[in-house]
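Checklist before submission:
- one chain only
- standard amino acids only
- sequence pasted in full

Submission:
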Amino acid sequence: MARNGPEAMIDIGSNSIRLVVYAGAPRIPSVIFNEKVLAGLGLGLAETGRLDEAPQQRALSALRRFRLLVDEMEVPDPHVLATAAVRDASNGADFLAQVRRLGFAPTVISGEEEGRLAGLGVLSGIPGAQGLVGDLGGGSLELAEVGGGEVGTAVSLPLGVLRIGPPNARTLRDVRRALRRALDESGLAGRGRGRPFYMVGGSWRALVRLDNISSGFPLPITHQHVMPPSRPAELRRLIRDLDRADPKSIRTLTASRIPTLPAAKLVLSALVDEVEPSALILSSFGIREGYLYGRLSPAERERDPLIEAAREAGKGLSRFGEHGDLLDAWIAPIFSDPPAEARIRLAACLLADVAWNAHPDFRAERGVEMALHGNWVGIDAPGRVMMAQALFSNFGGGRSFPDPAIAALCTEAQLRRAVHWGLAMRLGQRLSGGLAATLRRTALARGGNVIRLFLPPGEEALYGETVDRRLRKLASSIGCEAEVASA
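Returned file contents:
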């Protein structure tokens, strides 16, 4: 699974030019560098059919810088993808010739391929996604169906935020008409009704940030954020009032994105009307991640991105080598978690030793910060909170989550279960001294209302006062008695 050095992706979009450099495990590579320049290649394309000179020069200036950076980083053969603006412009070939002179080998992808890659990106970041994907860029909107781990039909429409013009009632009617025709002709009509709609693209990501601010959502995480279909209509007033808003209240919105929000909201409103989805879910993974995901073997694609990312983090931050899989297997016998919760428990165990080098008074806070704000995918907001609560209890923070507003994203039963995970992890870490060998020779089990710790003969001295306290605290929290037995 080790990647042979870093890989770079350059996305030449209709609105932005972006360089992302990835490293780490192929299934969920870490971003080690990310830079975006809003060149606006698609500006004026709808009127002239050409790329204007000023946006071309901004794009080429960004690409010259990116060329120098990837050379300094010793990243060989960056993958360069060009999308709607370049493929649709009459002078797109001339622009690409200049890009090649910089030493790049750009690939112009079709609208259908762009939709397919966006769908793969969603499947990479949200395993099990079932519904329609919409990738909104500056020059186009791609729609694709996802389900069963595969991408189905994909279509491209010239409905990017730079193309549709200033929104008005006529624009909304035109967009709805174009959507209805594309859905009918592609066979996607009715395929999204009552299913999630997955939003990809910077303008929709900005809408979700605005929704987070306006609704007081306590986590600033956009990936896998869920909005009800009614939200696009409610966002209209918020977008209209942006010019009068306190800049501090919109600090998560870049100034260059704000002008695209009315068009993004209009397209989203039209889609909600025509598709009738059950929910709107933001995916921070799109065509770049989809491109990398599409190059993996079927076996690599099957790996869980949350678990892979947590395992990578655990390996890099633990004291004696990561042993989270073993810790999870050690505590699992006393729980009967459904699969969806068992994978969150495993992720927490993989991170159970990541705060050892922090001051003891701040280890619990370090664990919470990592769980809540880590760059995880394949997990929703309640899942993040459960992982954070488990780590908070594991690092000695206790049972009461430090932020009631964030805790409210989970049910009481979910938080209670996460506390139990954390106390069991804390027991295992103390008993073993953070070493795997001791966990292999001991065992934890539950029989009726008794939690039993099994120790090998001759190693009874492992059961010190602190271990006794932690075992009894764990058992009491679950409503059980504590016993020690010989293995």
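Reviewer check: The two ends are 36 Å apart (CA to CA).
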